[in-house]
């Protein structure tokens, strides 16, 4: 049984969400809170399997409530709010504190749009429920010889829970004229990726853009996965999207992207796996390390959720395990020297 907490100050919305959730076999409402402060108290006394957290509320908003809950009694949090469009910075601030994803509050009614909005919520809930499922991806095929002339050094980054804030920390520590291309896969719904790209642009001197089909990584530019399909590197070294594998609950998948890079990119670069729930990215990071890349996993102390980087650590996929503020300097050192350290160096104590 999946026990779900609902945090919203509008009684009508609470009842509507309750009806949507309880129609699904195996889902039940654990409790309801009318504001963020009440949610913090209830979560400490009875931590549910998932929280549906509104963003704009009296007494304590969803951003501060998310921060407090993730610090005191952490659990998966999905932002469900009608104020999405006008509060993009708050959405990503909440995600930086540990919210897994965000979705618009479902629309009441019997028309197609209303039904689709309810299905979107249930799909997000199911994805979060399945996040801890181990990846069954396998790396197939061999790297094809391709010309390396004019290719930039490549930095690839994967993140999930707490990722926006971690990404902002890393990107803000890199110079605007970085002599490398960067590609980021963050677990976030495709409809919010443009907002995330805009928010990250305000945090860094680098050019942040959504990755589009057929584009190739380029110097001083951050390409962000911008679809609910998986971002991959194609054999011609351009970025594209694919729906397969279809059985992976988190989309876009870090593992799918990292493994495509290991298969096709001819140069050795830097791969970074940041905070996040589950194991996505650990196998891909391991494949890149085996291929000679310099691989970094965020440490436990600075991770909002120590799932993905812990899985990478346990696999021996990380050359370095670093606190978030040491990741950007490590990337710069590698790009300056052109080679990774020869031993694992952990900054955890």
Explain this structure.
The chain has about 350 residues and is an alpha/beta fold. The protein folds into two domains: about 1-130, Rossmann fold; about 155-345, Rossmann fold. Helix content is about 35%, strand content about 20%. The protein contains eleven helices and 15 strands. The protein has helices at about 10-20, 35-45, 60-70, 90-95, 110-130, 165-170, 190-200, 255-265, 280-290, 310-315, 325-335, and strands at about 1-5, 25-35, 50-55, 75-80, 100-105, 155-160, 180-185, 205-210, 220-225, 230-235, 240, 270-275, 295-300, 320, 345. The strands form three sheets. An eight-stranded parallel sheet has the order 8-9-7-6-12-13-14-15, with helices on both faces. A five-stranded parallel sheet has the order 2-1-3-4-5, sandwiched between helices. Strands 10-11 form a two-stranded antiparallel sheet. Helix 4 (about 90-95) crosses helix 6 (about 165-170) and helix 9 (about 280-290) runs parallel beside helix 10 (about 310-315). The radius of gyration is 20 Å and the shape is globular.
Please write out the topology.
Blueprint: E1 2-7, H1 11-22, E2 27-33, H2 36-45, E3 50-53, H3 62-72, E4 77-81, H4 88-96, E5 101-104, H5 112-129, E6 154-159, H6 163-172, E7 181-186, H7 190-201, E8 207-210, E9 221-224, E10 230-233, E11 239-242, H8 254-264, E12 270-273, H9 282-290, E13 294-298, H10 308-315, E14 320-322, H11 327-337, E15 345-346
Parallel strand pairs: 1-2, 1-3, 3-4, 4-5, 6-7, 6-12, 7-9, 8-9, 12-13, 13-14, 14-15
Antiparallel strand pairs: 10-11
Helix pairs in contact: 2-3, 3-4, 4-6, 8-9, 9-10
């Amino acid at each position: 049984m999946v026990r779900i907490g609902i945090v919203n100050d509008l009684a009508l919305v609470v009842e509507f969400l309750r009806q949507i959730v309880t129609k699904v076999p195996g889902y039940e409402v654990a409790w309801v809170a009318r504001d963020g402060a009440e949610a913090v108290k209830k979560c400490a006394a009875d931590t549910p399997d998932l929280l549906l957290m509104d963003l704009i509320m009296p007494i304590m908003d969803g951003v501060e409530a998310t921060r407090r809950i993730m610090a005191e009694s952490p659990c998966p949090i999905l932002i469900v709010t009608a104020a999405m469009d006008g509060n993009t910075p708050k959405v990503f601030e909440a995600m930086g504190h540990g919210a897994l994803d965000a979705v618009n509050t479902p629309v009441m009614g019997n028309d197609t749009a209303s039904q689709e909005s309810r299905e979107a919520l249930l799909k997000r809930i199911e994805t979060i429920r399945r996040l801890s499922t181990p990846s069954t991806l396998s790396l197939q095929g061999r790297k094809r010889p391709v010309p390396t002339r004019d290719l930039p050094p490549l930095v690839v980054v994967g993140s999930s829970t707490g990722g926006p804030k971690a990404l902002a920390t890393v990107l803000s520590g890199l110079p605007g004229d970085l002599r490398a291309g960067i590609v980021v896969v963050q677990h976030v719904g495709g409809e919010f990726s443009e907002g995330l790209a805009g928010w990250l642009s305000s945090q860094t001197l680098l050019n942040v853009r959504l990755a589009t089909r057929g584009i190739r990584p380029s110097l001083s530019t951050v390409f962000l996965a911008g679809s609910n399909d998986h971002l991959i590197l194609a054999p011609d070294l351009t970025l594209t999207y694919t729906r397969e594998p279809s059985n992976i609950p988190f989309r876009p998948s870090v593992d799918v992207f990292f493994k495509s890079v290991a298969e096709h990119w001819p140069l050795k670069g830097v791969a970074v796996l940041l905070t996040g729930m589950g194991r996505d990215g650990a196998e891909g990071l391991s494949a890149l390390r085996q291929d000679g890349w310099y691989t970094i996993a965020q440490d436990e102390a600075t991770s909002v959720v120590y799932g993905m980087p812990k899985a990478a650590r346990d696999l021996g996929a990380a050359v370095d395990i670093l606190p978030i503020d040491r990741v950007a300097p490590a990337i710069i050192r590698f790009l300056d020297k052109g080679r990774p350290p020869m031993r694992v160096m952990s900054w955890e104590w």
